[in-house]
Amino acid sequence: MEVETKTPVSDKIGLVGSLIASVMIFLLAIYSFIIDLFVDFNLYGIIIDFIFLFIAFEVGFFAMRTFGRLIYYEKIVDASFEKGIYKRLEPLLRKIAEVGVEIDEMREEVDLVNRKVATIIAEQAKVSPEMIAPGASMKFAVKTILLTVLTMAGFLYMLQYPIGVVHYATLGFYILWWLFLTGEFELFEEMGA
């Protein structure tokens, strides 16, 4: 895996521009040096030409050296990422990929369960609604189990931590069961209930 280190375009343009400028200054200084030396001898012009040649050489050398460092640093970053960070992150990345696959498998299983539930609901909707005898429905069984668990938990709590209102709590559980059974069997209209 290779990391792309992006050197800003402005830096690259600046390096190329400084290299072109140094070449142009070098060529102009050489031209001026030839004129000052051979055509019209001028000692001050020759000294100035040497100064400009030195400046052009230094600017060109700086541009080439900076460009070399830039390439070197990019290679170091790539190598250090490959040797250090990627090797440490590789197990994590592999685990993330595995989790992604497992999530996809779970999504497929959930979709399958959703289709099955939709099919069951559709089949139940097609079946003509028949009167279900009280106490024979699944809702009644679930409510009974829930109320049984609640009652047992209440009595176990009262056994573990005796409080002075045990008889009121027992009465509360009795009334709760009476309301549940009377409501399930629709006996609220009956006077004997």
Structural account:
With 193 residues, the protein is mainly α. It folds into two domains: 9-123; 138-184. The protein contains four helices and no strands. It has helices at 9-39, 43-126, 138-160, 166-184. It is rod-shaped, with a radius of gyration of 45 Å. The model has no long low-confidence stretch (mean pLDDT 83).
Give descriptors for this structure:
rod-shaped, 4 helices, coiled coil, single chain, 193 residues, 2 domains, mainly alpha
Brief account:
With 193 residues, the protein is mainly alpha-helical.
- The helix fraction, in percent, is over 70%
Query: Could you tell me the strand content as a percent range?
Result: under 5%
Q: How far apart are the termini?
A: 78 Å
Low-confidence stretches: none
Radius of gyration: 45 Å
Provide the domain count. Answer: 2
Total helices: the number is 4
Shape field: rod-shaped
Q: Find the count of extended strands (DSSP E, 2+ residues).
A: 0
Please give the largest β-sheet.
none
Order of helices and strands: HHHH
Quickly give the structural class: mainly alpha
Mean pLDDT metric: 83
Transmembrane segments: 12-35, 41-63, 140-159, 165-181
Keywords: Coiled coil, Membrane, Transmembrane, Transmembrane helix
Coiled coil: 96-123
